[in-house]
Amino acid sequence: MAALTGSFVISLDFELHWGVCDVLTVDAYRENLLGARRVIPRLLALFDEFGIHATWATVGFLFFGRREDLLAALPPTRPTYSDPGMSSYNHFDSVGHDEEADPFHFALSLVEQIRRAPHQEVATHTFSHFYCMEAGQTPDEFRADLAACVSAARAIGLELSSIVFPRNQFTCAHLDVCAELGVVVYRGTERAWPYRPAAKHRQNRLRRAIRLADSYVNLLGYHDTTYGATLERGMVNIPASRFLRPYSRRLRALEPLKERRVTNAMSHAARRGTIYHLWWHPHNFGRDSEENLASLRRILGHFAHLARQHSMRSLTMAELAAEVRASQRRAPNSHLPLVRSNSYCVLSLISAARG
User: What is the DSSP secondary structure assignment for residue 60, as one 8-state letter?
Assistant: First the structure.
C-alpha cells in the first residue's frame, strides 16, 4: 500500500520541566527550559516559512496558566510507580502560582501561539508525562491520566487525536485505552531492537551507544516506513524515523554527518514514496539555539528541494493518519501492515513483562 509521494512528518515532545522533573531540578536545566520558551516562536516562524505541518505533543499540565486551575483538574487516580519520584504528581511543591511566576511548569500562552499558527497540530504527551512501562503503574491509572488530559484540552477548545508516549514507552493495553478515549494516532519507535519500547532500567549503555552511532552513520537503515501501519485495535502507528539530536559542542566536528544522515534518509523516503518522521523536544534547542536552528533550516531547505523534485509533502500525524485510514477503507483486504504492527505491539508486551 505504498504512497505515490513521500511524506515528511515532524513531531515535537513539548514538556518543559515536567519531562525531566524526575531526573533534573529546574536550576540544573534552567538554560534549556527558558531557552525552549524563546525558541518555540522561532520554530513556528521557521515552519511557516517552509510550509511545515508539525505535531506538538504537549504534556497536559502545560494547558494551564495558573496553579489553582491545574490542581482542580488533577484526577483522583494517579500513577503508583515503585519509585514515587518518577511521578510528576509528586513534584508540585516546586510549582509556582502562575505562568508569569513559573515559566517552567505552565505554558498556556505558548499553547495558544501553537494552535494559532498555520498547519500546527496540538497533540498529547499524556497529562503528567506518564511512563507506561515503569514498575507499579497500571492501565487504569493511565486511563485516568489521559482522560484528564482530554478534558483539559477540551476546556480550551482542543480535540486530541494524536499521542506521543513519554520516553516512547507503551504496550497494547495502553493503546487500547487511547482508542477508548478517542486518541487514535501514535508515534511508534523505529523497529530496530535498540529503539524498541523499554523501561528506564533496560535502556543500557549498549542500546544508547548504538542509537548514538546510528545518528551519524547508517548502521540500522533509513527508518522510513510505508503507509498503512494500522493496528487492528484501531490505532494508527506512524513510527519515528530519527531523533534530531541537538548540537553538541563536544561532537561539533560530527555535525555534518548528523545532518547528512537525516537528509539522505529524507531523500530515500521521497524517492520511494514512504514516510520520514523526525522528532525532538523544544528544550533540546534551548541551549545553543542558533546552531540548532541553523541546522534545522538546512534540513527544511532540503525538504523544500524534495518537495519540488519529488512532490514530497509535509503532514501532521493526524493528517497522515486520516490518509492511512482512508487508504485502508479503499483496500480493506490488505492485511500485511496489520500483521507487522501487531507483531511490533507484541514485542512491546514482551519487553514490559521482562522489565
Answer: G
**CA torsion sign, 141 to 144 to 148 to 149?**
positive
pLDDT tens digit sequence for 200-226: 767 768 777 887 777 778 777 778 887
Give the integer Cα–Cα distance in Å for 85 and 107.
23
Yes or no: say if 261 and 299 are a contact pair by the CB < 8 Å rule. no
Do β-strands 54-58 and 313-314 pair in parallel, antiparallel, or remain unpaired? unpaired
**In this structure, are residues 114 and 56 in contact, taking their beta carbons and an 8 Å threshold?**
yes
**Single-letter code of the amino acid located at 222:** Y
Q: Nine-digit cell at 139?
A: 492501565
Mean pLDDT calculated for residue range 337-343: 40
For 11-48, the pLDDT digits (tens) are 999 999 999 999 999 999 999 999 999 999 999 999 99
Query: Interior CA angle at 168 toward 164 and 174, to 5°?
Result: 70
DSSP letters, 121-140, are: EEEES-SS---TTSTT--HH
- 290-328 confidence digits (pLDDT tens): 999 999 999 999 999 999 999 999 999 999 999 888 877
CA dist 52 → 35, 110, 173, 310 (Å): 22, 18, 33, 16
Question: Which distant-in-sequence residues (6+ apart) come within 8 Å of 296 by Cβ?
Answer: 43, 46, 244, 285
Asked if 302 and 266 count as a contact pair (C-beta separation under 8 A), the reply is yes
- DSSP annotation of 247 reads P
Homologous superfamily assigned to 7-354 = Glycoside hydrolase/deacetylase (3.20.20.370)
Q: Is 149 helix (H, G, I), strand (E, B) or coil?
A: helix
Query: How far apart (Å, rounded) are the C-alpha atoms in residues 15 and 12?
Result: 9
Reference 236, options 68, 66, 19, 1; nearest CA is 1
Q: Residue 200 is placed in which grid cell?
A: 528506564
The rounded distance, in Å, linking the Cα atoms of 255 and 246 is 9
